[in-house]
Amino acid sequence: MSDDKKTEIEQMWHDWFVIDAAMASEKQKRKFFGVLPKNPRCKFCNAPFEGIGASVARTVFGKQRSNLNSRFCNMCEEHARKFPGGAEVEMSILFADVRGSTALSEKMSAMDFSKLINRFYTQAASVIVQADGLVDKLAGDSVAAFWGAGFAGPHYVRRTLEVAENLLRVTGHADPNGPWVPIGVGVHTGVAFFGSMGTAGGLTDITAVGEEVNTAARLAAQAGTGEIIVSETALKAAGVDGSQLEARSLTLKGISQPVAVRVMRLS
């Protein structure tokens, strides 16, 4: 691939993620697909793969699950393969982990535990999609997502914090009897690489990688049940005064410098 072509592709990914006006029609479709029932969906455009929503997506837009990669529709898979690469972009990142999942699994049958985790995935994905986030991973006992100005508008970091609080609500952390699944959340913001990357199996994934993504994951790992650990960087970017929140300085695995954070909880 020529240098000019690489530059063109990099600019395309950058504009698609960062600039609100870029590819407006495609983003409008993404919002439209998000309200159609039901999960599972294309990781990138939200087109549903089952139910009446899938019929609408297939009949009207020609979208159906890719035969090559079950995480994407046929059109998004083709797009990702056509434009391999990406760009460094400003984003906010959220990770949410089930706390004590090993202990939970020991108290339940494998079937019941899988239903619990699937319920968590479904609730989390719904909250994220409604707030114009991109669901990056639903794996193990965790969910990862990210936001950019091109999808969620200029206040995308604040919207990420709102999602973090809503995740606690939908998992029952405001219930006096306790949550139906205990989770902790980490939120961070910074520059990461976003784009289309190949996997070891020859498939393509659209994802975000970099130190800031790793930091968000480490913050979530440090969060206790019902806690949202937010980096000071994210609070500043969101324009949120965190002076009344509990302050911590965390030494995170793989991160060279301590990270200043604040702890949010549902009131």
Explained architecture:
- The chain is of the alpha+beta class.
- The chain folds into two domains: 3-83, no CATH class; 86-264, Nucleotide cyclase, GGDEF domain (Alpha-Beta Plaits, 2-Layer Sandwich).
- The protein is built from ten helices and eight strands.
- Strands 1, 2, 3, 4, 5, 6, 7 and 8 form an eight-stranded mixed beta sheet that branches.
- Helix 8 (156-170) crosses helix 10 (232-238).
- The longest helix has 21 residues, at 110-130.
- The radius of gyration is 19 Å and the shape is globular.
- The N and C termini lie far apart (54 Å).
Record field, number of beta strands: 8
**CATH 2nd-level architecture of the largest domain:** 2-Layer Sandwich
Largest sheet: 8 strands, mixed
How many domains? The number is 2
Mean pLDDT value: 89
CATH topology of the largest domain: Alpha-Beta Plaits
Fill in the keyword field for this structure.
Alpha-Beta Plaits, 8-stranded mixed sheet, globular, 2 domains, alpha+beta, 267 residues, 8 strands
Give a brief description.
It contains ten helices and eight strands. The chain has 267 residues and is α+β, with helices and mostly antiparallel strands.
